[in-house]
Write a structure and sequence with these properties.
disordered N terminus; mainly alpha; 13 helices; elongated
Length: 267
Amino acid sequence: MNLTEGRARLGLSIGSLAAIVVLVSGCGAGRNTLPPGSAGADQFLYERGVEAMKERRWTDAREYFVRLIDGYPQSRYRADARLGIGDVYLEQGTAESLVLAEAEFRDFLAFYPNGARADYAQYKLGMTHHKAMRAAGRDQTETRAAIRDLAAFMERFPDSPLREDVAAHLREAKDRLGESNFRVGLHYFRTRWYPGAIPRFRDLLRTDPEYTHRDEVYFYLAESLLKTENTAEALPYYERLIAEFESSDFLDEAGKRVAEIKQGQGR
């Protein structure tokens, strides 16, 4: 073992203690001593970083994590510190910090593709885009990116305990994109350009059959088909609305349409 390696493995070397004193003095009073029985300076830095993050002291938290990463390449806390930096940027939530968070989580996955916390990194990578999603009437680039990275999690980590949370956020992102596409179809419907509305609604049902507000899609697709005299094609969509939704603003109207169509067919 050479001198450099020896120092890296010493829990409380003079150099590490000096680094801690300098760091803590710049990050806040009252935390300038190593706790009794501490396993080492790297653990001390990591715990202080986590504490600072909980207190929303973003700059301090990053500084602790960076010091750990740079000063203790063999530390068992190094991977968690890298994630900590990404989490700090993600929690800040500004446009600039989300870009930095994305880079941190991508770097983590490049360094630790099969690491114990790779699932967490993939989840948070998706969330950097999820937090940047825009309203349904605006550009959906970030929404598509969120869907891509969250769907990648679902494919790569089928047994992760984070799966339920990821699925919920993925559904939110898909619904945002679905709403954006639905609005285009609805615009065509309201302007009575039914040949433009019909393929929009059908495509939404094809690409996202679990779209949360598909009752609206069923109704306006059926209405568009009805207005273009495609009654036989319209009927199944009214019936699907009634069968799949116990509560919907369109249930009563759909029921009336079904009765009218069937009455007309019986003549």
